[in-house]
Design brief:
InterPro entries: Integrin_alpha_N. This protein is α+β, with helices and mostly antiparallel strands and 296 residues long. It contains six helices and twelve strands. The strands form four sheets. Strands 1-2-3 form a three-stranded antiparallel sheet. The longest helix has 11 residues.
C-alpha cells in the first residue's frame, strides 16, 4: 500500500540521536510536505536535521544552516516587527538553547525580544531589559573597568546600531570606550578621541567660540552626568556655557550665572591677583567686585 506523505508519521529518530543534556530535540514539518522532520540544536550553535525531502537520511554532522529548518532553528519575525528606520533587527541565540531568537532596539533605548524560551511569543512593548539578551543589547563591562573614584561610567549607544556601548572618562581628560562596532573589544588605554562617542564625551565647540585673547576656555563636567561641558569666561565677568543638560545648545550671550558651572566660574584668584585689582581702572574695580570681595 502506498502511504500518502500527508498521512505518514514522519522520519524516525535514530538511537542516541540528540540525547545530550544541552541538546534541544524537535519534531515538526520543516519543508511543508506534510511529513514530520526531526531537528536538533545545542547551546554551541550546532544544528542537525533529518529531513523527509532527503529520504530521512541520518545526520550526525551538526553543520546544518538555519535555513534547513527556520521554524526550529529560529523564532519567526512577525509582519511589521522592527521595521522603523531607526530600529536595529538582530537574529541570535539569546538564551543558549540553540534556537535563534529575535531582538530589536532603537536609538531612544527601547528594546524588544522574541525569545524561544518564551515560546517565541510576540513582543510589541519596547520595555525589555538589557538582561533579556545581553549579546544584542549591550557590551559587557570588564571586571575592574572604570572603577576609580574620579571615573564616570556610562552605558549608551555611541554608534547608532542599537547595541549599548560602554564609555569611561575622568577629570584628567582620559577617555575609554568599549564599542559594539569593534566587537566589544576591551579598552584600557584611555586615549579615545571625543569622536569615539560624542554623546558621552563632550559637547562640541562651535567655530569661533571663546577665541578672544582675554577669554578662558575650559572643558569639564559641570553637572555630573559624565559628559564634558564647555565654559568660557573673560576678564570683564562675562560667562558662557554649553551644557549637556541643555542638549549642548550654543551660548553666545555671556550672561551665565556662576551657578551654571561653579567648578569653572567660581575659582577665586590668588591674593596677589586681588591686590592688583585695587586702585586700578573701572575694569579692575569690576574684577575686585566680582572676585576679591571676600579677600580684602
Amino acid at each position: 500500500m502506498i502511504c500518502l506523505r500527508s498521512a505518514c508519521a514522519g522520519c524516525s529518530r535514530p538511537a542516541g540521536w540528540c540525547t545530550n543534556t544541552s541538546s534541544v530535540f524537535r519534531s515538526l514539518d520543516c519543508d511543508g510536505d506534510g511529513v514530520l522532520d526531526l531537528t536538533c540544536s545545542n547551546s554551541t550553535g550546532e544544528r542537525w536535521a533529518i529531513l523527509s525531502q532527503n529520504g530521512c537520511a541520518e545526520d550526525w554532522t551538526g553543520g546544518r544552516p538555519v535555513s534547513a529548518c527556520p521554524q526550529s532553528f529560529s523564532c519567526s519575525r512577525p509582519a511589521g516587527w522592527c521595521t522603523n528606520t531607526s530600529s536595529v533587527f538582530r537574529s541570535l541565540d539569546c538564551d543558549g538553547d540553540g534556537v535563534l531568537d529575535l531582538t530589536c532596539s532603537n536609538s531612544t533605548g527601547e528594546r524588544w525580544a522574541i525569545l524561544s524560551q518564551n515560546g517565541c511569543a510576540e513582543d510589541w512593548t519596547g520595555g525589555r531589559p538589557v538582561s533579556a539578551c545581553p549579546q544584542s543589547f549591550s557590551c559587557s563591562r570588564p571586571a575592574g573597568w572604570c572603577t576609580n573614584t574620579s571615573s564616570v561610567f556610562r552605558s549608551l549607544d555611541c554608534d547608532g546600531d542599537g547595541v549599548l556601548d560602554l564609555t569611561c572618562s575622568n577629570s584628567t581628560g582620559e577617555r575609554w570606550a568599549i564599542l559594539s562596532q569593534n566587537g566589544c573589544a576591551e579598552d584600557w588605554t584611555g586615549g579615545r578621541p571625543v569622536s569615539a562617542c560624542p554623546q558621552s564625551f563632550s559637547c562640541s565647540r562651535p567655530a569661533g567660540w571663546c577665541t578672544n585673547t582675554s577669554s578662558v576656555f575650559r572643558s569639564l563636567d559641570c553637572d555630573g552626568d559624565g559628559v564634558l561641558d564647555l565654559t568660557c569666561s573673560n576678564s570683564t565677568g562675562e560667562r558662557w556655557a554649553i551644557l549637556s543638560q541643555n542638549s549642548c545648545a550654543e551660548d553666545w550671550t555671556g550672561g551665565r550665572p556662576v551657578s551654571a558651572c561653579p567648578q569653572s566660574f567660581s575659582k577665586l584668584p590668588t591674593l596677589t591677583s586681588c591686590a592688583k585689582c585695587k586702585g586700578f581702572t573701572s575694569a579692575w574695580r569690576n574684577c575686585l567686585s566680582l572676585f576679591c570681595h571676600d579677600r580684602r
